[in-house]
Design a protein that fits this description.
43% strand; alpha/beta; globular; 9 strands
Length: 197
């Protein structure tokens, strides 16, 4: 059988068309389509009170595409936030147990604590006299979690009530729901300065 050039080209074309492309080993997840309006956030300042004379949280800023729509959830997060310094002042283990998640972590300047280590550390020793003022408190929901960033100034007193030290700290806290209740998941110290008198 004589093979002509046109026959050879036709055979090669048909053969190459039947070949299956090798499957790619890289899977690409398409980016979700987000309406342009959903990307635009705004902020509102919300007045608040801690209910404790030595804990001064006068307001916080809520950032969201529609802050009014998530205001109730924001208030629930801030209710936990306001209980946190009360637990610190009173060294009350039961309050820590109520407000911290099971997988809670704390990162200070160098120290790191898991939940039980942290509670043991914060509930040991004698109760000291101090007050705290919160500044630039900002809450933003990111997915199912709430990020709270803030500065606080702690003023410590000695046993006679005389000013003894001032601590200035910047923090980032993450809140999440556990058993349908907002709880504190992690606390990170960003910056720390202390003045001793």
């Amino acid at each position: 059988m004589k093979i002509t050039l046109p026959f050879l080209l036709l055979t090669m074309t048909l053969f190459s068309g039947c070949q299956k492309e090798p499957e790619s080993t890289v899977s690409v997840t398409p980016s979700p389509t987000i309406p342009e309006t959903a990307r635009i956030s705004s902020q509102i300042e919300i007045p608040t009170q801690s209910g404790h004379p030595e804990i001064d949280i006068s307001s916080y800023t809520l950032i969201a595409p529609d802050p009014e729509a998530v205001k109730a959830e924001a208030e629930a997060v801030m209710a936990v936030k306001k209980r946190y310094p009360i637990a610190m002042r009173t060294k009350d283990r039961s309050v820590f147990n109520e407000i911290l998640t099971r997988d809670f972590t704390f990162r200070g300047t160098k120290d790191f604590f898991n939940r039980e280590e942290y509670i043991a550390d914060r509930t040991s020793g004698e109760i000291t006299d101090w007050s705290v003022k919160y500044e630039n408190v900002v809450l933003q929901f990111i997915g199912a979690e709430g990020l709270v960033s803030y500065r606080n100034v702690i003023s410590g007193k000695d046993k006679t009530g005389k000013p003894e030290y001032t601590e200035r700290m910047t923090w980032a806290d993450i809140y999440t729901k556990e058993n349908n209740q907002w709880k504190l998941k992690t606390v990170h110290l960003i910056d720390y300065k202390e003045d001793v008198f």
